[in-house]
From TrEMBL, chain B:
CDD domains: IscU_like. The lineage of its organism: Bacteria, Bacillati, Mycoplasmatota, Mollicutes, Acholeplasmatales. It comes from the Bacteria. InterPro entries: NIF_FeS_clus_asmbl_NifU_N. GO terms for biological process: iron-sulfur cluster assembly. The gene is sufU. This is SUF system FeS cluster assembly protein. Residues 9-128 form the NIF system FeS cluster assembly NifU N-terminal domain. PANTHER family: IRON-SULFUR CLUSTER ASSEMBLY ENZYME NIFU HOMOLOG.
Length: 401, 146
């Protein structure tokens, strides 16, 4: 187990909220001091643009920004020029989908699933409507998982695009994505991986996965909000049209033509999120200093501990007791998630209530909304106990009426 | 149990949640129907009302959501029934003011609706307590000439 006391010393939020039980990392993680300091360093000591200024401060800011790209590239085992900085996973996934508007046509097929976050499936629903390409959903198994077998059932020689999540933000399942990618490539389809929930939990290796595109966000892996990453294979990014036109993405301009810079710069029009990128770099370094093996062991143990205690409580339903990550999705029978959330809120236990931007899986579960707790590196047994106490208190409170 | 939560979940609110008044929609062209939902939490509310000679003579509602949302539809229906359209709009405004802890006209807003005063301590729940009220307000404002 991680020494949570020591870890919390790195997260200033605990100084200001001593009795905080933060179980909503699935929505956004807390930020360590190293990240906050790095963002602060940029604004306090540099504060200027990148790639443009011919003066020392600008060189320094540019160096930090490009170093961040190197850090990200190492983090996912990509090449430097395959890493595009974006606003977040949503922006990354939309960018890829938009570029296929001019590629797909009637008769082509796209595969996605009901397990997706809206940002992984809605861009393709849009592409499907505009191009008349058919949108197919992998049938989930009884547990709500994407399986290789079910994927084979929807894969055809017409499949051109596969857009799937690596880790579900509601069920916490890990998709057997490596095998799916192999199968997709056999029919010549490209695979876009939503790694927003995978990035905080497990090492990502784009080369061994052989995925074509992959996206994740900074703020879910201890980094700042407003920064994310799009990975794409070099030859695919080279073919892809820029989604935005403007400063810094262009090589030369004449009145009736222009030539874009090479990847990744042709996708980074305008002044980028400089503080976000270098803050993300610090977040990755912090995560790596702990190591995914320790992160996984820690969250798995807390997950086991919490599930064990939940088992003894009558009147709740856990929808993903076989979750592969620290995500617990549940409901208190007869109590609407938003009524329950107010009890947790009163006890300073932060959990998510709602459909988690994944209405399809919430419907699949037969629910209008659910409660979700995510366990992470700064949580300890005491957090789990206070979570359990809130569950019991919610049941007792609403039983009195 | 904390006093705060008891302010939010008053017995009268939970009674309306468990045994709502005027629940169920009608298939009648004399009723005006408004459907609203809250996409972030999934609360979904349909309100129907009928106006005769400038007076809201009947209100129906049907929806899914938390106890605050569903009960407030019931309370809205008994609070605004048999009020003139303008009077109803004034009461709706007073209700919103009460929920944001602003001074409101206690002469026009009374009865079970007062139980929702505690919601002002839970800003995240104001949208639950107002969904049905927003629905009828929308209808009344859209159909000024009725």
């Amino acid at each position: 187990m991680l020494d949570v006391k020591v870890i919390r010393q790195n997260f200033p939020i605990y100084e200001h909220n001593k009795d905080l039980v933060y179980l909503d990392t699935g929505a956004s993680s807390l930020k360590p001091k190293a990240v906050i300091d790095q963002v602060d360093h940029y604004y306090s000591n540099l504060g200027v643009n990148v790639h443009r200024g011919v003066y020392g401060l600008s060189y320094e800011a540019t160096d930090l920004y490009e170093e961040a790209r190197t850090t990200v590239a190492k983090f996912i085992n990509a090449n430097f020029d395959e890493v595009v900085f974006t606003r977040g996973t949503t922006a990354s996934l939309n960018m890829v989908a938009q570029s296929y508007l001019s590629v797909l046509k009637e008769g082509d097929e796209i595969i996605t699933s009901e397990l997706e976050h809206h940002s992984s499936m809605l861009p393709w629903l849009n592409v499907s409507k505009k191009t008349n390409a058919k949108l197919n959903y992998v049938k989930l198994n009884d547990e709500g998982r994407i399986t290789v077998e079910a994927f084979k059932d929807v894969l055809t020689t017409n499949t051109k695009v596969v857009a799937l999540t690596y880790v579900s933000n509601v069920m916490g399942y890990i998709t057997p994505i490596e095998e799916i990618i192999k199968l997709a490539h056999e029919v010549g389809a490209v695979v876009i991986v939503d790694a927003a929930q995978a990035a905080p939990h497990m090492p990502i290796n784009v080369k061994s996965l052989d995925c074509d595109y992959l996206a994740f966000s900074g703020h879910k892996i201890l980094g700042p909000t407003g920064i994310g990453v799009l990975y794409g294979k070099k030859h695919l990014l080279d073919q892809m049209e820029p989604s935005e036109y403007g400063g810094d993405m262009v090589d030369f301009v004449v009145k009736d033509n222009a030539k874009w810079k090479d990847t990744p710069y042709k996708f980074e029009a305008g002044t980028p999120i400089i503080s976000g990128a270098i803050g993300l770099s610090s977040a990755i370094k912090y995560l790596m200093s702990i190591g995914f093996e320790a992160i996984e062991a820690h969250t798995k143990e807390l997950h086991r501990y919490t599930l064990e205690k939940l088992k003894d409580i009558k009147g709740i339903e856990v929808y993903n007791s076989k979750s592969d990550t620290g995500i617990i999705t549940f409901n208190i029978i007869g109590v609407h998630p938003h009524d329950a959330a107010s009890i947790f809120d009163k006890n300073k236990v932060c959990i998510r209530a709602g459909h988690h931007c994944a209405q399809l899986i919430t419907k699949w579960l037969g629910q209008i909304a659910t409660l979700r707790a995510t366990l992470y590196i700064y949580n300890d047994y005491e957090d789990c106990d206070r979570f359990i106490d809130s569950v019991k208190e919610t049941i007792d409170f609403f039983n009195q009426f | 149990m904390s006093t705060n939560l008891e302010h939010l979940y008053r017995q009268v609110i939970m009674d309306h949640y468990k045994s709502p008044f005027n629940k169920g929609l009608v298939d009648d062209p004399n009723y005006y129907t408004v459907h609203l939902h809250n996409p972030t939490c999934g609360d979904d509310m349909t309100v129907q009302y009928k106006v005769d000679h400038g007076v809201v003579t009947d209100i129906k509602h049907q929806g899914t959501g938390c106890s605050i949302c569903c009960s407030s539809a019931s309370v809205m229906s008994i609070t605004l029934k048999n009020k003139s359209k303008q009077n109803a709009l004034n009461i709706i405004e007073a209700y919103y003011k009460m929920l944001t802890n602003e001074p409101y006209d206690k002469n026009i807003l009374n009865g079970d609706a007062i139980a929702y005063h505690g919601v002002s301590q839970f800003p995240a729940r104001i949208k639950c307590a107002t969904l049905a009220w927003k629905a009828i307000e929308k209808g009344l404002l859209e159909n000024k000439e009725e």
